[in-house]
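Backbone shape codes
____________________
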Amino acid sequence: MFSILDLESQFSKPKINKSKKMTVREFEEQSKNHFVSFVDDTMESFDVQIILNPKSEIIKSSCDCNSKDFCFHQLALSIFIAENNSGKTTSKRTSKKKISEAEMIMEDLNSEEMKSWLLEFFKKNKDAEMQFLLEFAEAKKEFSDDEIKQIIIKTTQSVVGKKKNLTAQDVKKIVDLITKSLEPVEQFLFQNINKDRTVEKFLLINKIILDFQMSVYTSSTRIDKFLENFKIRFVSNFNSIKDIGIWGKSAEKYWNIFLKEDELLTIYFYDFLFEMYHSGTREQKTFIAELVRNQIIIWIENKVDLRNSIKEDLLPIIAENGFFPSLQAYFPIALYENSYNIKLINEIIKIDEMKAEEFCKKIIDKNTNEKYNFPYYEILEGLYGKTNNIQGLAYVKRGKFNSGYNLEDYIFIEQNEEDREVFKKFRNRVLSNLKGSFSSDSRYSEMYFAILEHEKNYKKMLEVMNDNVPSGVINKYVKNLYNFDRKKFLSASIRRSSWNSQEEDDDALIDFLIEKYDVDEIK
């Protein structure tokens, strides 16, 4: 955790100096100790955020340069914050402004010459023409659908032309221009947020931008971020309609398109609805939840089913408002739908722990890949731990054992699994898996020999001693193996044709053999 109060002791001088040369612009404190800005690095610019705790320590940071480390851009913003917070300022010498050669030439040009040159320049530089229009065009007070469409199309085309593969810099230009060009449109929408056509215009903007995004190729996520932030701002204004009656009428209209009408919804309309709920007030959430509950009752009566992905989105709305117990029948367990199932079981636990346990075991039995079982074992471990169900904990530890071999867990399973046939199969499977993995990692042979040592099964140890068992593992049990059968131990040691462990471990094993056996035996 870095402190912005003492950055120079935490980073090298070259890194500090390089970061200081970068330009921090559009600096903003979004909330207390949550800072965002653009950091310009030569020809590229990056979105950076820094979050501090009250001690001025960095607890979270990000940069879209995708560096895995704390990058130059994050350091540049940290230095800027430190200097800003400490009251430091960069002193600048005042001097008389020098008139550039271009300015001198402009003094001698008449307006017609200037217009003619700009028109020719704009023909070859469409993004410059768009910047000119955004700066000097007369602001409109309202916008038709076609005008909105043309604004976005002209903005994107001014940057990309006929290009299909876009660089990160291309996308940044596009997003910056769209942000500026849509400012008056956005203002128009917010001023008319309670009118019927406003939401339709919001959805139109999403459609046009997404259609453009689908027509090009880029790895940048800036367009997605723009649309996400645009949605959040729009819904925040929508939910700020002061007259709850007017808001409720509009909210019901749009939710009923989803709940009652049989038509395919676009993803941006779907996201708009759920953002409306999740960013709403308690009163607004209750209103929407009532609409959803009433429709689910109708769906149950008419045996109408939905995709599990939609049920997963509706479940929090139902649960948060206390409707889950009465509507539980509409949310059955769905095999191989882990994200949905986990949310569902966590709600079932609140009303019926035995049923939650039953569902977890049912899913575990059906899953073909063990890695998907882990969250269900976690739920069961919580249930069994609360009731001190030893048999249940043995079942959980047995299921989780392959994800993290642990001798204590093995002994716990051995001591508490009442069905000895079940334990026998478990033991054989564990030893087989460990032995088959000797060559990939020494941890597997270490665990294998630890289990056999617990069982005092030195006969089996001698049988499996080979090149893939490191000398370091053998040395842990060397005296017991020697005492069990000195002749077989010597044969097993000599049988090893190569030594794969640390040199000092090899030397220790050789020293033991020389000490315990005479030359003729070793020969």
